[in-house]
Design goal:
By secondary structure, the protein is mainly α. It has 3 helices and no strands. The mean pLDDT is about 95. One of its GO terms (cellular component) is interphase microtubule organizing center.
Amino acid sequence: METTRNIEVKETIDILEDLSSLLNAGLDRETLSLCVSLCERGVNPEALATVIKDLRQQQLSAAEANSLGN
């Protein structure tokens, strides 16, 4: 039987997943869960968003470089 806390966490992630989808943010459930966990531990949400954007840009740049090399 799920505890009230587990139910609340699941509902929160469900809502965040819906928002991510509506905003086309591209964050899956696992990533959203990790982001929430980091924020709960004191990570600055704006700094976290910046890191995610930077990592996506690096991934995109690497993919472009690989496609040019082939």
